[in-house]
Amino acid sequence: MRIHFTLTDLARTRMAGRPSPLAVTTFSTFRLAQRAGTPGLDRWRRLVRAGLVGPGGGMGGGPPRVPYFAQLAPVDPAHPVPRFLRPHIGLRTLDDELERLLSTPPRALRADLEYVGRHRPLPRWTRDLAEGDRAAANRLAAAVRDYHRVAVAPYWRGLAALLAADRAARTRQLGDGGVEEVLHTLGPRMRWRPPVLEVQTRAETDYDYHLGGRGLLLAPGAFSSYVPCDPDDEQPTLYYEVAPGSGEHPLADLPGGPHEGLAALIGHSRAAVLEVIADGVTTGQLARRVGLSLASASEHATVLRRAGLVATRRDGRSSHHTLTALGSELLLHAAASAPPAP
Length: 342
Fold this sequence. Notes:
Layout: E1 2-4, H1 7-12, E2 14-15, H2 21-33, H3 42-51, H4 94-102, H5 106-117, H6 126-130, H7 134-151, H8 156-177, H9 179-184, E3 190-193, E4 196-199, E5 208-210, E6 217-221, E7 237-241, H10 250-253, H11 259-266, H12 268-277, E8 281-282, H13 283-290, H14 294-306, E9 310-315, E10 318-323, H15 325-336
Parallel strand pairs: 1-5, 2-6, 6-7
Antiparallel strand pairs: 1-4, 3-4, 8-10, 9-10
Helix pairs in contact: 2-7, 3-15, 4-7, 11-12, 12-14, 13-14
């Protein structure tokens, strides 16, 4: 994708303000759906999937519930996403932003969905939303809130601090070297070749996006890059993924998550075993990922199974371990009560 700037666009390009909890939540579903390519997110995925275990799954806990609003989230950074799920003006809390979503006029929701529908299929439930059905809007808000509670809320203070720090650094960069200095350093997937910003996407065809004098709003993103697509945006927003110099994903370095708290309760090795089992693993996979012998991994899994936290089934010569509903709840509550980032 090529984003074309004029002199007016460069003059009007600026940094976004407060990060949007709703936008962060929406873009996180893109990373949750991936199973490879971002090792720093492996632990986060395990914890989220554990927290999304479906009800009524018995001792096996059931499969993870995929948040249905994720059907509107991007499967590629170049896919259009409804603006009501990625507000460029962030409010203080997710509840504030969901209240704003619920007060959006139906005609605005309909126009937003019609644009997205011209580029990719929409799920059937969006028809009621586009027609102004209040119950459909409430279901959407509830689904976002439930998913956010598991995937984002336990880490929000750390994420918000990280995004604010990047924004402050970019603002200083803007003052010292100008907007082109910022565009030069947005990440390895973006290359500034004046007057064009080239963005690598997985789209099969290249396309050109002309800002047309509106400028560009630059917003740091925690989970995924997102390039502007809507031609009628008052000012397009480019979400660029924050990438620390270490190359690790930001969540890999954030405090929080259940491991530390659980380690104090059940021991370091057993806490690590419980987290890895959230992915659903064989004893061999468990041993390799935690760094234990097969005998030790099997012993820890047995203790956790006897405590009702893990379910094990035999598959030929292998044992396959998953979390029970109780094990999932333990991970989720431990993550929610972890100490916040400083």
